[in-house]
TrEMBL record:
Residues 289-308 are annotated as: Disordered. InterPro entries: TRPC4AP (IPR022162). GO terms for cellular component: Cul4A-RING E3 ubiquitin ligase complex. One of its GO terms (biological process) is ubiquitin-dependent protein catabolic process. It holds the Pfam family DUF3689. This is Transient receptor potential cation channel, subfamily C, member 4 associated protein a. One of its GO terms (molecular function) is phosphatase binding. Transmembrane segments: none annotated. It comes from the Eukaryota. Residues 292-306 have a biased composition (Low complexity).
Amino acid sequence: MAANGQRLYRTQTRRRTRSKNILSKIKNGQITGSGMTRGTQFPMDLLEERDKKARWQGIPLLLRRLHESSHINSDLSKTHSVVKLFVEILMRPTLSIQGSVPIMSDDLIKDCLSVLYNCCICTEGVTKSLAARDDFVMFLFTLMSNKKTFLQTATLIEDIMGVRKEVIRLEDIPNLGSLVQSFNQQQLANFCRILSVTISEPDMGVDDKHTLLARNAQQKINASPSRAESNQVALLNIPGFIERLCKLATRKVSEASGTSALLQELEDWHSWLDNALVLDALMQMAIEEAEQSSTESSDEGSLSSSPLRHTLPQSMKIVHEIMYKVEVLYVLCVLLMGRQRNQVHRMLAEYRLIPGLNNLFDKLIWRRQPSSHTLHRQNQNCDCSPEISFKIQFLRLLQSFSDHHENKYLLLNGQELNELSAISLKANIPEVEALVNTDRNLVCDGKKGLLTRLISVMKKEPVDSSFRFWQARAVESFLRGATSYADQIFLLKRGLLEHILFCIIDSGCKSRDVLQSYFDLLGELMKFNIDAFKRFNKYVNTDEKFQMFLSQINSSLVDSNMLVRCIVLSLDRFEGQAEDIKVVEVLSECRLLSYMSQVENRLSFLFRLINIINVQTLTQENVSCLNTSLVVLMLARWRGKLPFYLGALKEKEYSEKYPGCLLNNFHHLLRFWQHHYLNKDKDSTCLENSSCIPFTYWKETVTVLLSSDRSSLCAIATYIDEAYRDLERDFMEV
C-alpha cells in the first residue's frame, strides 16, 4: 500500500509539475513572445489527457503523430491516407460550434496546414494529389482571409500552384475582390507570388515546342483568351489593385546607413540565410506582421514597427523588403505585356510608378556579386539572391514599359524633355507627337531621369555582368518603334555609342547574351543616323579595330543580324541623299558603310542568313534572320536588282555543290512567313516601324518571290532546276 501510495504521489506530482511547467511556458510566451506557438509543441501525454476531457476525438494526437512523421528521413508509408483525413478536417470542421456554424481554432488550422506542407515537401505525390482537388484549392483561398493563418495558407497554395497542370481561374475564387482588398500590403506582396503563376502563360520550354510552328499550332487550338489572360482581366477589375502594387513597388527600402559594414552584410546575405536562427526570425517576423495587421493599419509603417525587425541585421531588413518588390514588379511586368497593356500603362502612369522607381534607383547597389552573379536570360530559371533578382526584374519592367509605347518619355525628367525638343529644333525636324503629348506632371523628378541614371550605371558595370544584358535591353526598348533622331542624339550625347563599341571591340567580353544585346542596341542607336556613323568611324579608326568588329559580327549572325539590317537600311537611305555634303563625306570615309556597299559582302550575309535557319528550327529568337534577308532583297527589288541577287544565290549553291538546297529552303521559309505574318492577329507594325518600309511592300515582295511563273525573273522557282525543285512540300513536315 505504501509503495502504491508513493507511486500515486509521484505521478500526481509529475502532473502538477508538468502542468506548472506548461503554464509557466505559456505565461512566459505571452510576456516575451517566444513561448509555445504550436499544438505540436505540447507533450504527448498532456494531449492524451486533454483529448479525453475535451472530447477532441483523437485529432490533436493524430496531428502530432503525422507532424512527427512528415519530416525528412521519417516513415512516410502512411502519410497519403492521413493527408486525406486532414483535408477533410480542414474542409469540414467539427471541433466546436459557435451558434450553428462549426469552426476550428486558428492554431489547429495552422498545424494542419503546416503538416500538409511538410507532407508535400517530403512525400512524393502529395502535392499533385492536393492540386488535383479543385474544391480544396478554392477552399484554401478562403482561409487567406484569416490573418492568423494567411502565411501557412499562402505557402501551401504556392506549392500546389507549382505542380498544377492547368492554371486556376481567379474568377472561381469566392469573393476575390473583397479578399484581395482585405489584404494588408505585406499580404498583398506575398499574394503576388501566387498571382505570378496564374497570370503567366505556361513556359513552352526549350525543345521543339518552342518553335514558331508549334506556337502557331497551339494558338489555333486555343483561339479564345487563355486562362492567364482571363486572370489578368480579373485582377485589373479589382478596385485599387494596381494602385496598391505601385505603392508597394515604389515605397522606400528600409533606410540604410551606407557604411562599409552594411555593404559587407549585403554581400554575404546568403551566409545569414544559412543560419537557421535567422530563418526562424524571418518566419516569426511574418507571423508577427500577420497578427499585428488585425490591430494596426496596413500602411508601409507597419513593416518597420515590428520589434523583431530591430534585432535583425540591417541587410536582412533590406532583403525582406526586396523580396516583396521582386514579386510585385514581376506581376506588373506580366500585366504590361498582356492584351490590356494600354489600360495598364494608363494606370501605371497615373499612379506615378516611374517617378517612384526613379526615386528608388539610388538605393540599388549596382555592383557585381562575387559568386552568385551569373548570366540569366529571359526565360532562365533563377536561384540568385533577392538583391540581384530585384534589379533584373526592375530592368525587365523598364523594358516592358518602354517597348513600342509613347509613355516611354515618362522615363525622363522635365529638363531632359526640353533637351529633346531643342535637338529637334536644331535639326529643323518636327517633335515626335508622343513627346508633345507627354504629361509633365507624371515624368521623373530630380536632376536625372530614370533612363539617364540607367545609362550611368550601365557604363560602370563589369564587362560580363548579366546586368549589362538587361540594361541594354531596357535602353534598346526606349529606341524601338518609329526611329526618332532626337532620341538617338540624346543618347549619343551621353557617350552610349562609344561605350557599346568599347564593350564589343576592346573589353574582351565573351558573353554571347551581352554581345547580342549590344548589337541590337547599336542597331537602334545608329539606324538612319549619319551622326552615329560618323562617331562610329571616329572610334573604329584602325583596320585592326574594324576587323575585330567584323569578327564579332560574323561569329554569330543570329545575334548580330539586327545590326546588319540597320547598316543595310541606313546605307540605302544615305545613297539616296547625294545632295547632302555631310552624308557624302561620311559615306566616303566610314569603313562600315564602305564595307556594306560592296555587293559581294551583302550577298555573303544574305547567303548565310538563309542558310542558318529552316522552317522547323524557326524560333522567336532567330526569325529575325529571315526578316533581315527579306530586307536585303526588298531593297534590291526597289533598285531593280532582285534578279541579280537570286542568280547569285543559285551560283553560290552550285559552287558549294548542293544545287537547289538554299533556294528551296528560302521558298519554304517565305511560305511560312506568309502563314505567320499574314495571320489577322499578327501585329505587322513592328516590321514596318523597324525598317521604314510599308508592310504592303513586304507582302508584295514575298508574293513576287513565291510566284509560280517561271518566266518571272523575280521568282525563286525560276532559279531552281527541275531536277532539284522541291517547292510544294508541306512546310509543316519535318
